[in-house]
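Figure 2 data, in text form.
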Amino acid sequence: NFIAHSKWVYNIFKNVKKTENSPISYVKYSINIDKFKSENKATIRKKLKISKDVFVIATTAVGMLTNPFKDFRTLFNAYMKILDKQKKVLLIIIGDNRNNFKSKLYPEKFLFTNPTPQSKELIEYYSCADLYIQSSNIETWGLAISEALSCGLPVIASAVGAIPEQIRGLNRGEKNDSLNLFSLDKANGLLFEKNNEKSLYEKIIWMFENKEKMTLLGNNARSFAKKNLNMSKRVNHFIKYYNSL
């Protein structure tokens, strides 16, 4: 007997011949939204010595720089284009060490940190950010995306695996954009095609230039987490499933 934590995993599993006769249930992934909530940004930035007028982008993964599933290269290339035009930005890379970073360009524009998962320190880094980015090659769910949304961060993410089950991409009226279809009152971020650094760059710039709309997306992100990612609402689903066995 199996439990899938996303519709994407559920559908993949159903098509695997070795387990085609095994029962599987779908119970959506969830987190503690009462723990993952934004703290005072100004206070946290003062503590971390980050200026209030800096546009802060966060991303996270274990071994981010070399993790083959996270595609840091696409984010790095898009960010370097940002730095050609805008210097008041900072990229926080959660989950790796600066010693593993080979680039020597703009060292002051990268902050490396490796807080303990679920820790107050991790929540502080989410809280000091303006935007969260996940440029993954694949995600069976995207735990960090859930955490960022719960902390009220708008998210730009690659449209792979189960990520579209969390990110409601904003319809900006762009032609042939089938990934972002939600209105401003429902959207919580933007989706882009994986490995597409040009598309990621354009969407980061849009966020930077549309801070009021970005704030609304952040508010929607927290509302989405409360409604769809609340662990306390998911417990009964697990109990019901276990009882059925």
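Caption note: The mean pLDDT is 95.
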